[in-house]
Amino acid sequence: MTKEDLGRVCFLHLPIEDEFLVMAKKQNECPVPNGTLIIIGGKENKGEDGIENREKPDDFFPLEILKRFVELTHKEEPIVEVITTASSEGEQTFDEYKKLFKELGVNKVGHIHHFSRKEAMGNDLVDRVKKAHGFFISGGDQLKLTSIYGGTPFLTALKERYINDKIVIAGTSAGAMALSTPMIFAGSKEVEELAGEIKITTGLEFMKDVCIDTHFVNRGRFVRMAQVVVTNPTSIGIGIEEDTAIVVREGNEAEVIGSGLIIIIDGLHIAESNIVNISEKKTLTIKNLRVHILGCGEKYSVPQANPPHK
Hints:
eight-stranded mixed beta sheet; Rossmann fold; four-stranded mixed beta sheet
């Protein structure tokens, strides 16, 4: 039997004496995707010799994340599709990425943009999905991506290729947030401290039981993510800073790349919170929340405590 036939055992890297975790380890056999995800915190470096709003570290490299995207296609002449549906300036966004990818040696760059769900319901893009080696989803409004593409032949074809083929799917900013489930779609800094004020929905589900938030440190989104985790304690929150990304292989093996850091919020051992008292508009309280901060080169196995998603 192949590794895909056997599945893989996904488990939390926590003390073995925890009875709940032992059960999860025994039962949670998950199919392994052949594709790779690159989940970017937004404002990935586009060739500038510096980083906006912070000093660059010694291991800073211009265009690092976009170069890694191209390298991971493992093709001498890769075909890349840029998906700008989330953006209100689709043509401008595409032109920018097309220029950057050409500088990195990619000569075949296609553009996918839909203004409505009706447009996206056809099968006209399925052949393009089958031929491409990399897909790059731009920023904008993540709710456009889920509401337009959910259940379409295009998204189904993309998911099938991610499971079966060694393709690369990258998303930046809103495009990154849409790759996970649950997905934040509303909740500003002004209301994040009030219990129940962060709005979530189902994302595109390339990662399940994981919530992605972007521009994480720069925009101070820790409390917003904590709200998501406390309402979904089996989900892991991953906050990604600008010009930073996680490369996800085999569905849950993550490596940090780029110039910043990621913050992981783990709610599995939450002991107490006031999240259910949303009618009272009180400030949020959570006890026993676990946090990890990881920089470039660090690796993390995303735990899965739910039964596997088939």
